[in-house]
Amino acid sequence: MKPDKILLQSSKACQSKITNIVNHLQLYMVHATKRIPVTAETLMKLKKLGHKGQTYDDLLQKMIEAYKKEKFLAMLKQRKENGEFVDFDEAFR
Asked: What is the C-alpha to C-alpha distance for residues 92 and 24, in angstroms, rounded to an integer?
């Protein structure tokens, strides 16, 4: 085979690989992550809160859910203290 044909075939194979890589990167970019700048201190605290194998995304999702529950319970407590609730037994008399 002539050197120019080998080079052409090699070039086509290389282009095919590059196209394949680009396609995979485009698929990955759909699910791309975002960077959140944090201090070294905050990063260490996050590491201590998580467990082995847990991603920061998983950890942050759990923290968000815990925050939502805490906020909801605080709202219920405040309403109870304000007298907005009645006793369960009284409600069905």
From this structure: 61
Would 93 be classed as within a structural domain?
A: no
Asked whether residue 92 is assigned to any structural domain, the reply reads no
Q: Are residues 69 and 26 in the same domain?
A: no
Q: How far is residue 5's CA from residue 64's CA, in Å, rounded to a whole number?
A: 59
Does 41 share its domain with 28?
no
Of 45, 11, 75, whose CA–CA distance to 3 is shortest? 11
Pick from 79, 39, 8, 15: which is nearest to 71 by CA? Answer: 79
pTM over 0.70: no
User: Coil, strand, or helix at residue 55?
Assistant: coil
Q: Which domain holds residue 2?
A: 1-32
Residue 81: its H or E element: helix 56-81
Provide mean pLDDT across the span 50-63. 90
Give 62-84 pLDDT, tens digit per residue.
999 999 999 999 998 998 888 88
